[in-house]
Design goal:
Elements: H1 7-15, H2 19-33, E1 38-47, E2 52-58, H3 68-88, E3 94-96, H4 111-117, E4 124-132, E5 135-144, H5 153-192, E6 196-200, E7 206-209, H6 211-222, H7 224-227, H8 240-254, E8 269-273, E9 279-286, E10 297-304, H9 316-322, H10 327-337, H11 342-349, H12 353-367, H13 372-379
Antiparallel strand pairs: 1-2, 1-5, 3-4, 4-5, 6-7, 6-10, 8-9, 9-10
Length: about 375
């Protein structure tokens, strides 16, 4: 018995381990299940209401690949055409243009059609949306010429049926990319010099916070005297001045021309001074090199001025000890200092508890300590 249509493409979708493989499987899936003239995938929206996406991909068989001019036209006309419908249907998985007008026969009279669709000789369109909260995170646009006809109810049912499969594949790929991003950030950070650093995602949620950064944030927010009464982890919060600087950088990044959003280097930065405490921070926005489904991250480096009468957080002996360890050993040592058990460390690093014990034993030998408590004292 022959396999159901699209089954092979779905298997390729779930086998994909890299983004290129995923995109290739998606093209094959749509080609087989829903005929179209052009397919465009928009991923990693920075502002979906303005149609501002980090990256857009046109399928290899698309007659008219999406270019900068198309970006401009969509951003110019798309909001007034789509927004009222999407505001009423938050979370919708699939829809077609003919649902947006009272009389589908008159869709060619809308400004969106006249200024954008007609420019590329498209008459019909269907969309598949993937949401994060109340905002679209990824979308697929399938375009058709007039002679191909509108998308049928059966074809829309097919798009809704494959929606959960694509979501699972995207979620898996995003997890992989986030983990790779975190590893690269940590390795690059430790290769340079142990430091007080925060890595924050696009929504300002912590990806990684070093022990020194925890202590500095506590002192920044509470003052040195009050901070001594708490463990840094218990009172951790991003200082409001740093939060405001990240908001500014995020708006600056969003306002860049669409063609420059994915360009690395030249990332904006802000210097932040804490009021009346003697702390300062350098905040930079860092795009991910290899990731496609994840947004830029914020790298925050904190320091305390010499005028503040507190013990130095970066004593030479501590630096020298950390530089004896490999990047992965440094990460393990930092997690031990954060108070995590071997079981918790194994879960976070995706290792077995046994491998964590073996690696930790190697750290003890290198630093000439024989217990977790002595390791923490040595590195603090």
């Amino acid at each position: 018995m022959a396999a159901p249509p699209g089954q092979s493409a779905l298997l390729n979708l779930h086998r994909a381990l890299e983004f290129d493989e995923l995109w290739g499987a998606l093209q094959g899936l749509f080609e087989e299940l829903v005929p179209h003239d052009t397919l465009v995938m928009s991923v990693n929206y920075l502002d979906w209401k303005k149609e501002t996406s980090t990256k857009r991909f046109s399928s290899e068989k698309s007659r008219r690949p999406h270019d900068n001019e198309a970006d401009r036209l969509v951003a110019l006309e798309g909001r007034s055409f789509f927004q009222p419908f999407l505001d009423l249907h938050t979370g919708i998985g699939a829809y077609q243009h003919s649902q947006l007008v009272s009389d589908p026969r008159k869709i060619d009279r809308t400004p969106y059609y006249r200024r954008y669709m007609r420019h590329y000789d498209w008459r019909y369109s269907a969309h598949l949306l993937f949401w994060h909260g109340r905002g679209v995170e990824t979308s697929f646009a399938l375009r058709r010429r007039g002679d191909q006809g509108d998308f049928t109810p059966h074809e829309m049912d097919v798009l809704n049926a494959v929606h959960p499969h694509i979501k699972v594949a995207f979620d898996r790929m995003k997890t992989f990319e986030q983990e790779r991003q975190r590893r690269r950030l940590l390795e690059g950070f430790y290769r340079a010099k142990p430091d007080a650093v925060l890595f924050l995602d696009w929504n300002l949620e912590p990806i990684y916070v070093s022990q020194d950064a925890l202590a500095l944030c506590a002192a920044w927010n509470l003052g040195h005297e009050r901070a001594r009464n708490y463990t840094p982890q218990a009172v951790f919060a991003i200082p409001p001045e740093i939060h405001a600087a990240c908001d500014e950088l995020r708006r600056e990044w969003q306002s860049r021309p669409p063609g420059s959003l994915a360009v690395e280097g030249n990332a904006p930065t802000r210097q932040v001074i804490a009021p009346e405490i003697g702390h300062e921070a350098l905040v930079s926005l860092r795009p991910e090199k290899g990731g496609t489904l994840i947004k830029p991250v914020f790298v925050v480096r904190l320091r305390v001025s010499a005028s503040v009468g507190t013990p130095a957080l970066h004593e030479e002996s501590s630096d020298r000890l950390l530089h004896q360890l490999s990047p992965s050993e440094r990460e393990l040592a930092q997690l031990v200092c954060a108070g995590l058990t071997n079981k918790e460390i194994a879960a976070q690093l995706r290792k077995t508890e046994g491998s964590v014990k073996v690696q930790l034993s190697g750290v003890f030998q290198k630093l000439r300590v024989n217990s977790r408590a002595k390791l923490i004292v040595a590195l603090r």
